[in-house]
Amino acid sequence: MKLRTKYILFVLILHLLTLVLAWFIFIDNKIYFIIAEAFVLISAVVAIQLYRQLVLPLKMLLQGIEAIKDKDFNVKFLSTGKLEVDALIDVYNQMMDELRTERTRQEQQHFFLEKLIHTSPTGIIILDFDDRVQQANPKALQVLGIDEKAVIGELIGELAHPIFRHIKALKSGETEVVKLDGVNSFKLQKSHFIDRGFSRHFIMLEDLTAEILAAEKKVYGKVIRMMAHEVNNTIGPVNSIMQSAMKTDQLWAGHDFDPIKDALQVAMDRNQNLNLFMRNFADLVKLPQANKQPVVLQKLIGSVVKLMSIRAEEKGVLLALNLPEEPVKIMADEQQLEQAFINIVKNAIEAIDDQGSVTFTIISKEKKLVITDTGKGISPEQQANLFTPFFSTKKDGQGIGLTLVREIMLNHGFEFSLKTVAERQTEFVVYWG
After folding, report:
1. What is the pLDDT of residues 218-249, one digit of tens each?
2. Which of 100, 230, 362, 375 stands the most exposed, by the fewest C-beta atoms within 10 Å?
3. pLDDT score at 125
């Protein structure tokens, strides 16, 4: 029962009881009856005034409570002229001012935080209480190459992109640098915050590819230049001495010295091979900027197929073409791009043990070239190091073929990838748009 109802019932019962008692007084003494009636009237007036002074202000405050429930902090009350009630109203009005100011401050901070997350150069992924993706800023979506609708509301451990498996394995406060495809490197940092008393996680995703590639190139460039300097300084004088000796006929008079002469020739040939070996490394460091000119992609692919056809025939590998009839023109350095494709096709042919195919496919609408081979594929362990300098899966490999491919692609600003997508289906994909 409401306080107002209780008060009205109490006043009515009290005054009715007083009237009944006054009736009995009326029988014996009319003067006392008149006095009693006057008392009842005065009491009724006082009760009405008390109702106005106490119950009505409380009713107004109840309206204020309803406004608070509705989060409407603009409702305020005027003073009534009653000391106690005005003190309560002042406290209420002050509280409403504080709530309104705090809500404005929270909204401004929330807007600023949302703007900061949205425009941050670092990828940010925010999870809900169940580790489902609640929000991913544009940078995170761009770095991962995924659509927002594909991740929002999904469990972090059930998403297809391999980086989410690393995020799932991370503990709060841990940091990890992940290299997924041998080219792109990401720094993952997982942390948490408290929301309504419970912990929620967020992940900061930073693309370190450019920095790591620059650091790698600086290091291996210095090593290669030092090696080339020492090898050339040694090979040059040694070859000169051996050539002089080979040209001195007096030293080789008679057949007894033929084995020595042959050994010197082998040593000279080996020196030349070593010199060529170092030149390959030096070419990697001295790769010039791409001289981009209009290139017909079908023509370029045709040249690569002609160059690699003999090697392909030797291993029984079919070089297949799936190209549009209409010429596809791209801006590229023809010599550099041709060298990159030759390296890719060479690796594809070598990956096929017995019989197979290497297929060139141009998808004009997507501005994409796909070179597919039916070789043995790339293992997850090899995938992470594919384009790393000096890394090779071959017994006598130098580890510069794919590194040169990487440098040429980066030199052109092309996006690319090399991975096994299914059994006996490995794809090298280039986006030139």
Report:
1. 766 777 676 666 666 677 777 777 777 777 76
2. 230
3. 93
59 belongs to a structural domain: yes
Give me 192's structure tokens. Answer: 């948490």
* CA 329-332-335 angle, 5° bins: 115
DSSP characters for 39-61?
HHHHHHHHHHHHIIIIIHHHHHH
Sheet containing strand 175-179, edge to edge, reads 133-136, 123-127, 198-207, 185-195, 175-179
Q: Which of 180, 195, 210 is the last residue of a domain?
A: 210
Is the same domain home to 316 and 264? no
Q: Let me know if residue 112 belongs to a domain.
A: no
Residues 45 and 169 in one domain: no
- Select from 286, 306, 324 the last residue of a domain: 286
What backbone phi and psi angles, to 5 degrees, belong to 210? -60, -45
Q: 7 is written with which tokens?
A: 């008060």
User: Closest Cα to residue 321, out of 393, 250, 369?
Assistant: 369
Say if 88 falls within a structural domain: yes
Question: What is the C-alpha to C-alpha distance for residues 374 and 424, in angstroms, rounded to an integer?
Answer: 4
Contact 170, 176 (CB under 8 A): yes
* Cross-strand pairs, 416: 430
Tell me the residue range of the domain where 44 lies: 3-104
For position 415, what pLDDT does the model report? 87
What is the reported pLDDT for 200?
Answer: 92
- Cα dihedral 206, 211, 215, 221, rounded to 10, equals 140
CB 397 within 8 A of CB 386: no
Residue 330's closest CA among 299, 362, 360, 297?
A: 297
Extract the residue ranges of the chain whose pLDDT is less than 50: none
Triad 79, 83, 89: Cα angle to 5°: 45
pLDDT digit string (tens) for 290-299? 889 999 999 9
80: tokens are 């009534």
Co-location of 237 and 146 in the same domain? no
Q: In this predicted structure, what is the pLDDT of residue 301?
A: 94
pLDDT score, position 332: 93
The rounded distance, in Å, linking the Cα atoms of 89 and 87 is 5
